[in-house]
Write a structure and sequence with these properties.
The complex is a heterodimer of chains A (about 110) and B (about 140). Chain A is mainly beta and about 110 residues long. Chain A has 1 helix and 7 strands; from the N terminus they run E-E-E-E-E-H-E-E. Classes of the chains: A mainly beta (about 110), B mainly alpha (about 140).
């Protein structure tokens, strides 16, 4: 899945990014052209199912790929690089920059 | 078209664990280990030489074999799928505990040994205790 526009919107599904994102948050995502940086939020293609998008945080960037991980404190709440290993840099689609819904939690995300 | 449907994203970004949490449970291994112990009891307590007694005896051996295997399978699911490196940091003996418990499953298949059956129950309980501690 590779959105055609430089900015696109996604709806978050699931709890693995709590407390940063909650299930149902609407995000504005900016396409990422430069290499990702550790600590950054990313939207990436699921390495096991490329049509499916994931939202996670970059833990480390290495020559063999990018390690992504959910923010949730309980590792059992997130399926990420701890199961499927580092993902290729090309799998990273964009970087969430803004939450635009729900209204009471609107704002920049990081 | 209302505003909400105009601004709603058309894409979903997944932030999940693949398997609904709560599907992992050490209860299946616990019951299997109990069954093994119960079968060892039945086998060692069996005395009669008539057909009915021999039938029960042979069935007990078969059920012991089967449930020791179920116990091993259930433990391996917890070991390889549920537990993660973060858990290992907190429970450094985790690998050793699982390895020994899996070996005890094999030992209970090979022998009729009340001690081995009790050891298996204790090992499964230790794993179940760790499992529930990680859920807190």
């Amino acid at each position: 899945m590779r959105p055609a526009t430089a900015l696109f919107r996604v709806a978050v599904a699931g709890q693995s990014m709590e407390p940063t994102f909650r299930d149902g948050d609407w995000l504005l995502v900016r396409r990422l052209r430069r290499p990702p940086r550790a600590g950054e939020l990313v939207v990436a293609a699921d390495p096991r199912e490329p049509e499916r998008l994931l939202v996670k945080r970059v833990r480390s960037v290495a020559p063999d790929g990018v390690t992504i991980q959910g923010d949730h404190a309980d590792p059992a709440e997130s399926t990420d690089s701890r199961q499927f290993g580092p993902i290729p840099r090309s799998a990273i689609v964009g970087r969430p920059v803004l939450r635009y819904a729900p209204l009471d939690r609107i704002g920049r995300v990081r | 078209m209302d505003l909400r449907s105009i601004i709603a994203p058309r894409l979903v970004a997944h932030a999940h664990c693949d398997i609904p949490c709560g599907i992992y449970d050490p209860t299946a291994a616990t019951i299997a280990a109990q069954t093994v112990a119960k079968m060892v009891e039945k086998i060692t307590g069996s005395t009669g030489g008539d057909d009915a007694s021999r039938n029960t005896y042979i069935r007990s051996v078969a059920v012991k074999e089967e449930h020791a295997q179920i116990c091993k399978k259930e433990l391996l699911i917890l070991w390889t799928d549920y537990f993660k490196p973060e858990h290992l940091e907190k429970y450094p003996k985790l690998h050793d505990t699982f390895w020994k418990a899996a070996k005890l499953c094999s030992k209970n298949k090979q022998s009729v040994d009340a001690k081995a059956a009790a050891d298996l129950q204790a090992a499964v309980k230790e794993i179940a205790d760790i499992f529930w501690a990680t859920k807190k």
